[in-house]
Amino acid sequence: MDQQGQRRVLLLSNGHGEDLSGALIGTALQQQGCSVEALPLVGHGQAYVQAGITTRGKTREYSTGGLGYTSLIGRITEVVQGQVLYLLSRLLLLLRIGHRYDLILVVGDVIPVLAAWLSRRPMATYLVAYSSHYEGRLQLPWPCGGCLKSKRSLAIYSRDQLTASDLSAQLQRPVQFFGNPFFDGALGASEGLAGAPRQRLGLLPGSRLPEALHNLELMLRVLERLPEALRPPQRLGLHAALVGKLTPQEVAPLASRLGWRLELESSSRCSLQRGPLHLQLEWGRFAAVIQQCDLLLSMTGTAAEQCVGLGKPVLQLVGEGPQFTENFAEAQRRLLGPGLFCAPGSGGSEAQLRGTAELLEQLLNRLLSDQRWHEELRQLGEERIGSGGGAAKMSADLLERLAQRHG
Q1: 155 within 8 A of 401, measured Cβ to Cβ
Q2: Cα 303 from Cα 74, distance rounded (Å)
Q3: pLDDT at 386
């Protein structure tokens, strides 16, 4: 505890989506009177900064988003950019400061789990990176299982109920599923999107540059191949959820090269136009896009999971990486189940682009004609992602366990 008698918690995470979940849990812990800080192992931990949670040490951002599920070129880039040495420096920082905290809360995979175990402090783990849906029976990488069985491991939370049941049997200790905190970020109130089309399509090109810009190019090329019936704005509203770094100045040269025209409609409204196609660019309106669009064209990780949680079908478009690769997309389909779709091909081939446009049309038509499918998608979201309130439920459980530990 600190001098005011507050429980001190350190959040340890290793990825953009993990930071988002960590920030939501951290905010819930702060609301319960805890003193919370974060040590992101990858990137600047922007989600923590936005939540007002102090990050420890000097952070760095890398083009691949950090050690993880990247392409071969992405892995080579990680080494060249010094990410391995950076990770080691972050782990050494944890060992130096770990004794100051009552609890280390891991949000991620084996690397932060091992780091927390080495700190010899009480720990809890939200295994957001692993799911039994991948293979049917989860094979935890060594030495993750041993660390989780440790007496210092106070609690383990899973990302779905199947994994909770599987790991409870494997580890011979309770593993709980309270829902996924990252889903809470998709449930907030949002402003209405412009227009009143019959249906809406949302584009999710990702958050990391330059990959997100390349992804947007592929998506624009798919839109160019839509059938004539879907092109009028009153039939299909088009909305692209863009991160702040993907500015109009970044988008304009790409759009011009592909035959699109950038229109600055006002200080806060901007669109791309090509013939009857009208793509509204949306900054800071991610929740509005995924809540109000009927179908999402996605090249993302966490964002696609949030869409599935909302009961929305997701159409993947495989890119060239380093993050959203063919292997990543295939693993995501196993994780999220029959709410995800993907046309064959990759790399922007004509077969891939045309196949994606055709599948997009089929999915939109099915949404109009098959009402039972809507209920099936909702049930899928509940099963794979859970309901809202995961952060609050985890924080309450953690505080109860800390209270029991300290008598």
Answers
A1: yes
A2: 21
A3: 92
